[in-house]
């Protein structure tokens, strides 16, 4: 039997399959003329997946006090919580029981019965290994808003840094990104006016506190128009910004999709990854979340994460645009790293709405 690189989203497993340079058809997703992996020929991928399976314990072996809402079938854990497979849960079951057939024969209860993570209920383990220690994200949010804004004890910054380092990304000299501003008429703004506001006029945003100027850029002109919420008949000046030197940023758009198989070299194991998956997802979602009002308190959690990243010497934060499908944004801590090389003025003549009825 053969599986293929398209069955997976994990970069490490895809690299193993593609590195064998064998083309064929997949018995699981049905793709043809793709890189394939012959099941049973070697143990590279089964050994990788066994490390993930080892994270879980069958419900029958768990304490009676273990919360049942933390248990599920292995295939559902893998589908909902891990960015490893590009398959639905039933297909994941077929694939892992084929790849890990020896393990399945020895411990079928791991695959066929509900399982949970023992360490997720161990307070001592979480205090040392969880980004949020024994707290929830809501505890952190309320604490930083209403208890202690500058010295939060809710975050295990050492463990946070371990995962942030796995989301590093380079941007190279000469790269062009974009920034938009709505303007009063067709004359638009000059290049000098397209940078961020000076520090004394800088309002708090998702990445910067009040009084700290940050340059917000986007990957395309279209993304910038969505980000500033341009409306019909608005005039918009779009500036092109060229990067002046190579920079290293933290890509929060991908922090919840780092490969668990790089953990040995990066300072975490599969269990530590598992207990932090939800926290990583929340950080990625929170920094990109559009706010319906301008309450500066709502930005405090992401400003805290941003300030921590800045303190570690990184040049900025990349995050997904929830306003523009497939768009990404880059917040640059030092605005002088980019130079505005030109501007164009656009007249917005139409927009498209997508909406959902609230029951």
Q: Taking Cα atoms only, what radius of gyration do you get, to the nearest Å?
A: 23 Å
Strand line-up across the major sheet: 6-10-11-12-8
Shape descriptor reads: globular
User: Helicity, in percent?
Assistant: 25-40%
What's the mean pLDDT score? 93
Tell me the β content. Answer: 15-25%
Low-confidence stretches: none
Largest sheet: 5 strands, mixed
Structural domain count: 2
Total count of helical runs of at least 4 residues: 13
Number of strands: 13
> How far apart are the termini?
47 Å
Verbal overview:
The protein is α+β, with helices and mostly antiparallel strands and 359 residues long. The protein folds into 2 domains: 2-120, no CATH class; 168-347, no CATH class. The chain contains 13 helices and 13 strands. The chain has helices at 11-19, 44-53, 74-81, 89-99, 101-106, 108-112, 123-129, 137-146, 157-165, 221-227, 263-266, 270-288, 300-311; strands at 2-4, 23-24, 34-38, 57-58, 115-116, 168-171, 176-183, 215-218, 235-243, 247-251, 316-320, 328-332, 338-347. It has a 5-stranded mixed sheet with strand order 6-10-11-12-8. Strands 1-3-2 form a 3-stranded antiparallel sheet, with helices on one face. It is globular, with a radius of gyration of 23 Å.
């Amino acid at each position: 039997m053969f599986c293929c690189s398209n069955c997976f989203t994990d970069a490490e497993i895809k690299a193993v399959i593609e590195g064998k340079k064998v083309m064929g058809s997949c018995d699981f997703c049905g793709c043809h003329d793709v890189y394939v992996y012959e099941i049973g020929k070697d143990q590279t991928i089964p050994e990788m997946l066994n490390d993930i399976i080892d994270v879980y314990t069958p419900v029958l072996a768990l304490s009676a006090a273990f919360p049942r809402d933390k248990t599920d079938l292995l295939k559902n854990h893998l589908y909902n919580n891990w960015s490893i497979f590009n398959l639905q849960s039933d297909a994941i079951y077929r694939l892992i029981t084929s790849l890990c057939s020896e393990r399945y024969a020895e411990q079928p209860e791991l695959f066929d019965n509900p399982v949970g993570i023992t360490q997720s209920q161990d307070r001592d383990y979480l205090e040392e290994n969880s980004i949020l220690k024994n707290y929830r994200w809501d505890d952190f949010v309320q604490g930083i808003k209403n208890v202690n804004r500058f010295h939060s004890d809710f975050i295990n910054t050492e463990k946070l840094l371990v995962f942030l380092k796995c989301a590093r990304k380079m941007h190279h000299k000469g790269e062009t990104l974009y920034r938009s501003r709505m303007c009063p008429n067709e004359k638009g703004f000059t290049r000098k006016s397209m940078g961020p506001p000076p520090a004394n006029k800088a309002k708090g945003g998702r990445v910067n506190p009040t009084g700290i100027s940050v340059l917000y850029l986007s990957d395309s002109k279209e993304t910038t128009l969505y980000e500033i919420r341009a409306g019909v008949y608005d005039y918009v000046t779009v500036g092109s910004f060229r990067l002046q030197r190579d920079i290293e940023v933290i890509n929060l758009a991908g922090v919840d999709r780092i490969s668990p198989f790089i953990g040995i070299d990066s300072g975490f194991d599969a269990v530590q990854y598992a207990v932090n998956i939800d926290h990583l997802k929340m950080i990625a979602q929170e920094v990109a979340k559009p706010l319906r009002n301008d309450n500066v308190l709502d930005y405090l959690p992401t400003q805290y994460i941003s300030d921590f990243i800045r303190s570690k010497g990184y040049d900025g934060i990349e995050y997904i645009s929830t306003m523009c499908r497939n768009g990404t944004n880059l917040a640059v801590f030092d605005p002088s790293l980019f130079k505005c090389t030109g501007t164009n003025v656009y007249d917005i003549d139409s927009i498209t709405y997508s909406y959902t009825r609230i029951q």
